[in-house]
């Protein structure tokens, strides 16, 4: 209910109309992280729409022409609870796959999962336009990305129609096996029975390659939620991604390079 959602977000006092279990659940959630964490954990109440893709990716040039990327990402929300304590809560993540169709075009797909209570799973497809520019010992790369919802379901409830998309971009510098990047994205989502939500995010990080087949990155930044008519909620986010790269070029075996 709306009253229960306000209690979860710390914007309302427990009411006698709520059961003891509902009041306890709301208090426990408030102790984790106010703002987005509360909003995300309450997504199972179908009071607001969830992010389409959620976490940003890594270096723009991590997938080359004819390469297949198979990996995943997990994010941790961090902040300060109402008692002044620092809180870490694994919140979102999921598997993803990408293929370098052209030198400057990468196709992507994946899932965005809520990892705390498994309240939702959204599926997305998208594409990235990539530019690479050698600069001496360094390589500069940038991309623009766009995608849409490919399906969504609330795991603890009946499947519901879910619509939305995302638009973003990134830039980075790579030196041999080490890269530094920054990415920004805006997700817009709308589910039946839930409010339209804008999810902007900004992340910076570092990416490392082990040989030609393994890529991992660490990033940190901020993610926010904005509902029309309400003030945005901000919270910090840290993420870890891991990927394997397979070379599927002409004349190459479908195996790790």
Describe this structure in words.
By secondary structure, the chain is mostly beta strands. It contains three helices and eleven strands; from the N terminus they run αααβββββββββββ. The protein has helices at residues 2-8, 20-32, 36-41; strands at 67-80, 86-102, 105-114, 121-135, 138-153, 162-175, 178-191, 197-210, 214-225, 233-247, 255-256. It has a ten-stranded antiparallel barrel. A hairpin with a 5-residue loop joins β7 (178-191) and β8. α1 packs across α2. The protein is globular and about 50 Å long. The relative contact order is 0.18. The model is unreliable at 1-18, 24-46 and 253-257 (pLDDT under 50).
Architecture blueprint of SSEs:
Elements: H1 2-8, H2 20-32, H3 36-41, E1 67-80, E2 86-102, E3 105-114, E4 121-135, E5 138-153, E6 162-175, E7 178-191, E8 197-210, E9 214-225, E10 233-247, E11 255-256
Antiparallel strand pairs: 1-2, 1-10, 2-3, 3-4, 4-5, 5-6, 6-7, 7-8, 8-9, 9-10, 10-11
State the share of residues found in helices, binned by percent.
Answer: 10-25%
How do the strands line up in the largest sheet?
1-2-3-4-5-6-7-8-9-10
Could you spell the SSE succession in H and E letters? Answer: HHHEEEEEEEEEEE
Oligomeric status of the shown chains? single chain
Name the poorly predicted regions: 1-18, 24-46, 253-257
Question: Radius of gyration, rounded?
Answer: 19 Å
State the shape.
globular
Q: Give the amount of beta strand, in percent.
A: over 45%
Report the major sheet: 10 strands, antiparallel, barrel
Q: Give the class from helix and strand content and strand pairing.
A: mainly beta
The count of DSSP E runs of length 2 or more, i.e. the number of strands, is 11
Spatial separation of the terminal alpha carbons: 52 Å
Average pLDDT for all residues: 77
Counting DSSP H or I runs of 4 or more residues, the number of helices is 3
